User: What shape does this take?
Amino acid sequence: MVNHIKSSALNTRLFRLLCQEMDADHNNLLFYTQLRWLSRVNLLLRVYELKDELKEFLRTQGKTAWVVLLESDSWLSELCYLVDIVESLNVLNCSLQGKDANLMIFHDKMSGFLVTLKLLADKAAVKRFSLYPRLVEHLTTCLYDDTELDSLSGEIACHLRSLIEQFEHYFPELDVQSFSVVRDPFTAPLDSIAAPPPPPPPPPPPPPRACTAPAGFRSAGSCTDEFVVDILVQNGSEVPDPVTARH
Assistant: This one.
C-alpha cells in the first residue's frame, strides 16, 4: 500500500495534492527501512492518520482490496494495536542505549518490560485494552459485537504471548542474586558472595641443566688442580708453572 504510492513519483505527487485538498495533517507517507528500524512505528502511525486520504486515493486507483481493508474496523483495530505495541518496543530500545548503561540496568528494564507484556496479555484475554491509547480511541468510534471483540482480544493475547516467548528465548534469565553485591555490598547476603578462587598452583621446578663438563669433573666433584691440568693437556695448551702462577 505504501510502496504503491512511494515507488511512483506521479502517485506521490497526486497523493500529496489530495492530502492538501482534504486539509490533512500530513502530506506524505513514510518509508520504512531496516537500517532505520525506529521508523517502523512512524510508518504505521502515518498510515493510520491518513487512512481516509489513502482510502479515497486507492479507490481512484482501482485498488479495491486495499480499500476494503481501510474500511474494515477489525483491520484498523489491529493497525492501532501495532502502533501502540511497536511504539512501546521503540521506547524500550532507546532506553537500552547510552554510555551509562550496564548489565544490571539492561536486566531491570528487560524484566520490567516482560512483566508489562504478561500484564497486557492477561488484560487482553479479558477484553481490557486500557493500556493501548490508540486502540481505545479507535474502539470508541466503531461498533463491535461480542464475537468480533472476542476475536480481536484473542489475536492480541496470542501475539503478546508469542512476543514474550521470543524475549525469553533471546534474553535468558540471569543470576540476579549476584547483582546484590554490586548494588549494596553491605546488606547483601553472604551466600550471594562468590567464594574467592583457589590460589594458582606453584610453578613447576625448572628442568635440570645439562651437564657439559667432562666425566673427570663429575667424578672429581670439584674443580681441582689436577683436573685443570688434564683439560689443558688435552687441549694442547701450555701448563703454567704453579710457582709462577701464584706470584
Residues 1-71 form one domain. The chain has three domains: 1-71, 84-193, 211-239. The chain has a mean pLDDT of 76.
